[in-house]
Amino acid sequence: MLGPVILAASRSDRMRRLVSAAPVTKPVVDRFIPGETVDEVLPIIQDLTDQGLELTMDVVGEDITNPAQAEAARDAYLELVDRLKPLDLGARAEMSVKLSMFGQALDGGHELALKNVRPVVEAAAEIGTTVTLDAEDHTTLDSMFAIHDELRKDVPQTGCVIQAYLFRTEADARRLADNGSRVRLVKGAYKEPAEVAYQQRHEIDKAYVRILRTLMEGEGYPMIGSHDPRLISIAQELARTAGRKLDEYEFQMLYGIRGDEHLRLAAEGHRMRVYTAYGTDWYGYFMRRLAEKPANLRFFARSMVSKG
């Protein structure tokens, strides 16, 4: 199992230096992260939306060690909102945020993260779009859900992410489905202990289907975060069974992975949203993409051999 090894490497400063210094790293990273600045990603946003796709934008970076860095993360998202406004895309370009970037892990982190993320959520609402709170490791989730509940009091379209591999998620999904939340369901990309999470792929897949059925049958708006063709087919069948129209759920996939499938689903009339990350602090995001799927790691390894 290479996934846990890669996830451990994502937290290693030594591995960060080695990967960053490798001459092949940048062209490979560019497959998943199309730019470091707003100016670099604006043409990507325009191009994808012109093709009938939607986006969720993520400013990468999680290693926040002081309140000033958390405020800088807030300001980076506020800049993104400001630059999206003249494009008049509305909900076709939303944002995803990790509360760790907003200071969640610092002293008084829950209140600090809420204080920093609230203006981003409110600014997004003003231009007709929304924010989804990304899920991180299991120790952060009670705080994330509490912040989500608080934000929805004023901006009910604020979304959140749940992870199929956690035992707790089926109960979380029932609550979120009952209260009408926007919910992105993913398999999960953090190394979690066996006490709290399924460890085998088939167990995770079965949990994913159970949870997705709950979301489809509920009052909320399901967002299917998966590249797995079998799960995509199952999602379509669950949506039909639940009587959902094509605009009452959506698919989400990562920028740089299965681009042809993005276009196929959009051409069939599905809402297809591309998770598009940008920024200078790309290392942790990049390593989790490698850990999630062996094909991504093989792609990187082949590139190292061919360019070395």
From TrEMBL:
It is an enzyme of class 1 (oxidoreductase). Its EC number is 1.5.5.2. Residues 45-301 form the Proline dehydrogenase domain. Its cofactor is FAD. Pathway: Amino-acid degradation; L-proline degradation into L-glutamate; L-glutamate from L-proline: step 1/2. It catalyses: L-proline + a quinone = (S)-1-pyrroline-5-carboxylate + a quinol + H(+). It comes from the Bacteria. Keywords: FAD, Flavoprotein, Nucleotide-binding, Oxidoreductase, Proline metabolism. PANTHER family: PROLINE DEHYDROGENASE 1, MITOCHONDRIAL, PROLINE OXIDASE. This is proline dehydrogenase. It comes from Streptomyces thinghirensis. The lineage of its organism: Bacteria, Bacillati, Actinomycetota, Actinomycetes, Kitasatosporales.
